[in-house]
Specification:
This protein is an alpha/beta fold. It has two domains: about 140 residues, Oxidized Rhodanese, domain 1, CATH 3.40.250; about 120 residues, Oxidized Rhodanese, domain 1. It has twelve helices and nine strands. The strands form two sheets. A five-stranded parallel sheet has the order 1-5-4-2-3. The longest helix is centred in the middle third of the chain and has 16 residues.
């Protein structure tokens, strides 16, 4: 994995070789499966993996936001994760919610965190070990640092990007981008209006992964964005509907390519598509 800018991906083989450590009560290594629906986790998961429901465990339950710092600390500590743990995250849909959680870990200053390349599907489809046993690790102290606001975009950052012509990467489907639909089929519609942020380019989150869900290599990722004029020299804002798919693109841009000014707009279209007076565009870019 050394071809990437940062050593943040681990292979399924790497995890399998360390399953004893991930199943130990010692918090040195922790494996975490993150999804919005934990039924698959409850049925079977990688041995020793902690199961987090992104919606109920990693989101503030009274306002639309990530966990507050103290709640993040409490959630992780109660699960047996310390701020010194080597944490490996994985999940469904090529790591949609695992990538969002990775971004949240980084936001609160946890540097020793990694993604399992290929996610849950790769682990299952390639016959790696599975278990239905849910671990019950001893609670530990977790002391978060940060927050690191340099990796998070807010409404004013988006407005600044529009005004200055900075790159905006909309990772949703072409149908969402054009305003034909408000959400992927089967998922909740969370916005009043369809379309995209003015000036945004539609570069799907899936474009950064191979057919097996693993990330493309450095050169392919660099070429993918360079073809659209994105080379890391300017602040680049990634967004989707609720911030999870854009986390995959942010991971590719910020972590794998090393574009330090890439930021994730976790408000995404759920916020922008509901803002009174916020400008939108419909149709293809340039229409």
């Amino acid at each position: 994995m050394s071809d990437y800018a940062n050593d943040v991906l681990v292979s399924a083989d790497w995890v399998e070789e360390r399953l004893d450590e991930f199943q130990s009560d010692d918090p040195g290594h922790r494996l975490v499966e993150v999804d919005v629906d934990t039924e698959l986790y409850e049925e079977r998961h990688a041995p020793g993996a902690i199961g987090f429901n992104w919606e109920t465990d990693l989101q503030d339950q009274t306002q639309r936001d990530i966990l507050k710092k103290e709640d993040f600390e409490e959630t992780l500590g109660a699960a047996g994760i310390s701020d010194d743990s080597t944490v490996v995250l994985y999940g469904d849909n090529s790591n949609w919610f695992a990538a969002y959680t990775y971004w949240q870990f980084k936001y609160y200053g946890h540097d020793d965190v990694h993604l399992l390349d290929g996610g849950r599907d790769y682990w299952v489809e390639n016959d790696y070990p599975l278990s239905s046993d849910e671990p019950d690790f001893s609670a530990v102290e977790y002391d978060a640092s940060g927050p690191r606001e340099s990796i998070r975009a807010y409404r004013e950052d988006v407005e600044n990007a529009i005004e200055r012509g900075l790159p905006l990467v909309d990772v949703r489907s072409p149908e969402e981008f054009k305003g034909e639909i408000l959400a992927p089929p089967g998922l909740q519609e969370t916005a009043q209006r369809g379309g995209h942020i003015p000036g945004a380019q539609n570069i799907s989150w899936a474009a950064v992964t191979n057919e097996d869900g693993t990330f493309k290599d450095f050169d392919d990722l660099q070429d993918l964005y360079a073809e659209r004029g994105i080379d890391g020299d300017e602040t680049t804002v990634a967004y989707c509907r609720i911030g999870e798919r854009s986390s995959v693109a942010w991971f590719a841009l910020h972590e794998l390519l090393g574009y330090d000014d890439a930021i994730n707009y976790d408000g995404s279209w759920t916020e922008w598509g509901n803002l009174v007076g916020a400008p939108i565009e419909k149709g293809e870019a340039g229409d």
